[in-house]
Design a protein that fits this description.
Length: 387
Amino acid sequence: MTFKHNKIIQKELLSYYEKKNHFFLIFYRWLKKKSHTSGLQSPVFGAVIDNLEISMVPALLLLPLLLRVASLHYLLGITILTALPGLVLWYYYATHRKKRRTLFFLTLALYSLGYLYYLFITEILPRGDVSQLQVCVVTAGMILTIISLIRTKRNPGFVTASLCEASSHKKNNKEESAYLEKRLQSAASCSVNSSELPKNEDALSTKWSLCPVCKIMRPPRAGHCRTCGSCVLRLDHHCIWINSCVGQANHRGFLLTLCVFVLTAVYGISLVLRSLCPRQYLMTALFYCPGVYSQSSTALCFTCCWYSSIITAGLLYLLLAQILNISSNVTEREAQQALRSKKAQRGVLGLRIYTGEHSRGFYQNWVEFLTMAEAVVDIRSKLTDLV
């Protein structure tokens, strides 16, 4: 009787989860169908529905639950906060191996930002240890981070056929042809060997290359992103946290987003630790805060401080890597290629040290980065690339 009873319970549970998933799939298909058939006036909503993923659900449901469980005891906090980055890395390698875009990491980042700000307003602010000016600074930092993130996601600078046509027209300009003729005449008058001319022509022709995947001519330092399926001007890398590439058009915005988020996170963590552990120094309060687990609210805020510190440490490492690359005028893609060809070496904390062929010195490299022209943004990709 016990065995038959267990079998009946298992069948009922399986049928319940099948119905639950079936209802979710029906709702998902209904949203997709409605966005195409009802003639919605908002293209942003249509873009969100078209990019809707089931992978967004774990990020929205599991994060508050895991943080609540981690705040019950410090041993649970150590276990969960240690395993959480491992689970995120596992999911990254699972999706990265398939070379497809996913909204999981962007959803996790935005939801974490909103959830931590919610706890800051509802749990820390009523304690009376944070002034209104400090709240305004944290709020302004969060708003600037979201605005900068939206601007960064618009377009990394995709290589289009119009860009190739504009470059070909520029090469065939009369002024440039006259300039080349003068160069040839001056070279002939100076008795330059004719064997050197083909080398210069080859050097000029090798600047643009044909992408074997896109079948389109691309300028120097452009690369093909296998995740996005397009070539990007001055491709740096594909960032999973913004679900987009980082290229010539949004590299400055990406660096600004990192700086604003890191500064806001460090400032917010310091405010929370000063409220929870007023008698401890900031550096020691994160590791030792007596009585913080006596109340569930303070334990949850302290656990969220650790969660925020882990995220901030990872983004700070990424920010340092970006600063080193920009100082040497190399992209992340070029640095990875240099490591594979053993032209670069790893320095402190595994950061890559590589001075590429485009480097002109520290000052000139930063001037070139801050003044480089942005690519022409395709109007059709403005709305759909926001998600």
